[in-house]
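Allow me, if you will, to draw on your knowledge of protein folds for a short while. The matter concerns a single protein, recorded as an amino acid sequence and a row of backbone structure tokens. Kindly check, if you would, that the fold set down in the tokens agrees with what the sequence suggests. You will find the record immediately after this paragraph.
***
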Amino acid sequence: MRIIPAIDIIDGQCVRLSKGDYNTKKIYNANPLEVAKEFEAHGIQYLHLVDLDGAKSKHIVNHKILEQIASKTDLKIDFGGGLKTDDDLRIAFECGANQITGGSIAVKDKQTFTGWINTYGADKIILGADALDEKVAVSGWQEESKEELLPFIQSYEKRGIQYVICTDISKDGMLEGPSFDLYKKIITSVSSSDVENGAEKGLKLIASGGISTFDELPKLAEIGCEGTIIGKAIYENRISLKQLEKYILSI
């Protein structure tokens, strides 16, 4: 299972929110590059970079920070937040994103999002399926859509999507543990198509939200999660980078 630390950006600073509420913003570091370099120094190869200003503004904002981290580290970055147009996508990839995550766009403009999968390839586009009570949320989690989580993921699996990041918003930033049952449910619901298509083509589920202790990581791996995004647990020293380094070396 891949370990993917998160850096969320507001006003160029590394922050964390609770349940996606911008009023709960806590600044952890004014220099995201410094944080990214520290991750890399502990053997981490992946980074989940979220442009929270972009998510609110509905267009890419913090692409300079993406460019800075991509050019000064070897981290493979998945970038999301406010990507709405072909131009936003072009900027993200030109600035060094290895993959992009689309959430709101996948709900509100399915034609454009499907076009991105077809243009860039399923290995470059991640479906952001963030939900509250199994209803997909959009616009930086400021709105709930009418999309039911499981049918939403299944519909995109049929369109060729391979990577899905699923965040249970009720858990995000709360340090109360992840939604094991929800992830089991998702993996079970797509397992039949995994068998049909071969495991390497099956859905790769990336768990996000609520990770609070190191012991939860092997459990997520056991369920079948392909990766896990860890945010506040690192910043609040609940999980040390040393522990993550050891875990990565042991895989």
Q: What stands out?
A: The two ends are 8 Å apart (CA to CA). The chain has a mean pLDDT of 91. Residues 151 and 191 are 14 Å apart (CA to CA). The first strand starts at residue 2 and ends at 10.
